[in-house]
């Protein structure tokens, strides 16, 4: 699910991707709310609040929200540039490596907060979390060709509504076409993303209240572990394929 294949990705792979990455996004988003009272991935709301701060002429809040939006975009750009470079050199595990980097930064940030927490640093930490959310969303979007957006639930709900309308229309018209079947699969993928993010959000608040920044550190370590396991399985599969081909030429 974390490897970009030459063949077309299946919806099953995208659903596994949604379960892992959308759940992780929901966890981190809720933990940030518990720690700082703010959602680092809620770009629609943050943009609306930015407009409000322009009217209120609150320069400090205006600067913070502007930096948060730019950080999210910078994260998406960084992930995209990393993937372009990786694919250029035929590095099949590039998405895993991006997740390892994301998890490592989150782990270091969490450890910093465990040992040196200060409310005066909250805004800087949120900007960094916004950057990581941009990386996370860009990674899932690129892997799934836009079918799974781990943090962009507004867009996913819209896509789910469109897919549901198409499915209902096909049922009413008794249309057994391949397009209707594809819409059903896409609807399942969107619903998996939505409920994974929701479940992660519920669990994230509970875990943060239970373990504080240790829970956030565990999430960073979990992302690293997930990516490393995927890399190891990919390398084993490639090695096995090479051995089979070598035996076939003997």
What does this structure look like?
The protein is an all-alpha fold and 250 residues long. It has a single domain (11-155, 196-248), classed as Growth Hormone, Chain: A (Up-down Bundle). 82% of the residues lie in helices and 0% in strands. Helix 1 (11-36) packs parallel to helix 7 (178-211). The two termini are 33 Å apart. Pfam families: DUF1275 (PF06912).
Question: Can you summarize this structure?
Answer:
Helix content is 82%, strand content 0%. By secondary structure, it is mostly helical. It has a single domain, classed as Growth Hormone, Chain: A, CATH 1.20.1250.
Write the layout of secondary structure elements.
Blueprint: H1 11-36, H2 43-56, H3 59-88, H4 94-116, H5 122-143, H6 153-172, H7 178-211, H8 213-248
Helix pairs in contact: 1-5, 1-7, 1-8, 2-3, 3-5, 4-5, 4-8, 6-7, 7-8
From the structure above, extract its key features.
mainly alpha, Growth Hormone, Chain: A, single chain, 250 residues
- Report the sheet-strand fraction: under 5%
Q: Helical amount among residues, as a percent range?
A: over 70%
Instruction: Summarize model confidence as the mean pLDDT.
Output: 86
CATH topology: Growth Hormone, Chain: A
Label the structural class: mainly alpha
Total strands: the figure is 0
Order of helices and strands: HHHHHHHH
**Unreliable stretches:** none
- CATH architectural designation: Up-down Bundle
Overall number of domains = 1
Shape descriptor: globular
Main beta-sheet strand count, sense and barrel state: none
Our count of helices gives 8
Tell me the span between the first and last alpha carbons. 33 Å
Please report the first level of CATH classification, the CATH class: Mainly Alpha
Rg from Cα: 20 Å
């Amino acid at each position: 699910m974390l490897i970009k294949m030459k063949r077309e990705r299946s919806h099953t792979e995208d659903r596994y991707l949604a379960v892992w990455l959308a759940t992780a996004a929901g966890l981190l988003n809720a933990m940030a709310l518990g720690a700082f009272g703010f959602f680092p991935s809620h770009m629609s709301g943050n943009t609306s609040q930015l407009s409000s701060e322009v009217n209120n002429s609150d320069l400090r809040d205006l600067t913070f929200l502007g930096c948060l939006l730019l950080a999210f975009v910078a994260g998406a750009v960084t992930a995209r540039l990393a993937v372009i470079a990786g694919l250029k050199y035929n590095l099949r595990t590039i998405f895993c490596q991006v997740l390892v980097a994301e998890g490592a930064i989150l782990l270091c940030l969490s450890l910093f907060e465990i040992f040196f927490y200060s409310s005066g640093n909250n805004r800087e930490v949120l900007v960094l979390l916004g950057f990581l959310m941009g990386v996370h969303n860009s990674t899932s979007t690129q892997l799934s060709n836009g079918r799974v957006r781990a943090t962009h639930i507004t867009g996913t709900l819209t896509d789910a509504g469109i897919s549901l309308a198409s499915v209902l229309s096909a049922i009413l018209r008794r249309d057994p076409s391949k397009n209707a079947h594809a819409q059903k699969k896409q609807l399942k993928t969107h619903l998996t993303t939505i409920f994974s993010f929701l479940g992660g959000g519920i669990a994230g608040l509970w875990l943060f209240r239970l373990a504080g920044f240790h829970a956030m550190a565990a999430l960073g370590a979990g992302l690293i572990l997930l990516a490393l396991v995927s890399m190891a399985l990919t390398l084993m599969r490639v090695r096995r394929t090479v051995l089979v081909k070598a035996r076939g030429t003997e």
